[in-house]
Write a structure and sequence with these properties.
The chain is built from 3 helices and no strands. Helix 1 packs antiparallel against helix 3 (53-65). With 66 residues, it is mainly α. 79% of the residues lie in helices and 0% in strands.
Length: 66
C-alpha cells in the first residue's frame, strides 16, 4: 500500500509539472506587444476596471490547463 501511494504522488506531481511546462510554452508563443497593439486598435481597455486584456487571457489559459 505504501508503494502505491508513493507512486501515485510521483505521477500526480509529474502531471502538474507537465501542465506548468505546457502553460509556459503557450505563454511564450504569445507576443505581448501584438496583444497590446490589438487592444489599442479595438479599444478593449476603455471600460476595464479590474483585469486588462492580457491578464484576462492569461487567466483563461490557466483555467484551460488546470
Amino acid at each position: 500500500m505504501i508503494e502505491y501511494v508513493t507512486l501515485a504522488k510521483r505521477l500526480s506531481s509529474f502531471a502538474s509539472l507537465w501542465q506548468i511546462w505546457h502553460f509556459a510554452q503557450a505563454i511564450n508563443k504569445l507576443r505581448k506587444g501584438v496583444i497590446r497593439k490589438i487592444m489599442r486598435v479595438f479599444k478593449t481597455y476603455m471600460h476595464c476596471k479590474c483585469f486588462d486584456t492580457w491578464g484576462q487571457s492569461i487567466s483563461m489559459m490557466s483555467c484551460q490547463f488546470s
